[in-house]
Specification:
Shape: globular
Family: Belongs to the splicing factor SR family.
Structural class: alpha+beta
CATH topology of the largest domain: Alpha-Beta Plaits
Strand order of the largest sheet: 2-3-1-6
Keywords: Metal-binding, mRNA processing, mRNA splicing, Nucleus, Repeat, RNA-binding, Spliceosome, Zinc, Zinc-finger
Number of helices: 7
GO molecular function, one term: RNA binding
Largest sheet: 4 strands, antiparallel
CATH superfamily of the largest domain: RRM (RNA recognition motif) domain
Number of strands: 6
Protein name: Splicing factor U2AF 26 kDa subunit isoform X5
CATH architecture of the largest domain: 2-Layer Sandwich
Distance between the termini: 38 Å
Strand content: 5-15%
GO cellular component, one term: U2AF complex
């Protein structure tokens, strides 16, 4: 029985633990989810919740209408953001194996930044220190994430869009 339970842990067959939270570190149902969101006590990966602000989603004129932002401006904004965050985290906390920025409009994912450090200790220290920081006028909310394989957490819709226009599926 224990072997069976271990084999289905974190999968859609698991009726106790949320497979979405296990796979992507977030769940669209949030606290209303009927399954458990097991927050790790140690992990190489952290998530910085809602840290990235895509200018296409936030640019507004004085009257509140949406501003058009070119693809070039969006890419430049993203590149600057990525370089700033990656460089600071690696210099202050340790070697980064992978960093992914969510460009997804789902409330549970929008602007999340996932950072996988080489060492769990670096991730733990980053969470402790980043929760006392501000970035772009907003408080940083960092937590350890269960995500270890970003290939499993990549949005299928984004993968398809990335393949169609030649971009990376971040």
């Amino acid at each position: 029985m224990a072997e069976y339970l271990a084999s289905i842990f974190g999968t859609e067959k698991d009726k106790v633990n949320c497979s979405f939270y296990f796979k992507i570190g977030a769940c669209r149902h949030g606290d209303r989810c009927s399954r458990l969101h097991n927050k790790p006590t140690f992990s190489q990966t952290i998530v910085l919740l809602n840290l990235y602000r895509n200018p296409q989603n936030t640019a507004q004129t004085a009257d509140g209408s949406h501003c058009h932002v070119s693809d070039v401006e969006v890419q430049e904004h993203y590149d600057n953001f990525f370089e700033e965050v990656f460089t600071e985290l690696q210099e202050k906390y340790g070697e980064i194996e992978e960093m992914n920025v969510c460009d997804n409009l789902g409330d549970h994912l929008v602007g999340n930044v996932y950072v996988k450090f080489r060492r769990e200790e670096d991730a733990e220290r980053a969470v402790a220190e980043l929760n006392n920081r501000w970035f772009n006028g907003q408080a940083v909310h960092a937590e350890l994430s269960p995500v270890t394989d970003f290939r499993e957490s990549c949005c299928r819709q984004w993968e398809k869009r990335g393949q169609e226009d030649g971009r990376d599926g971040i």
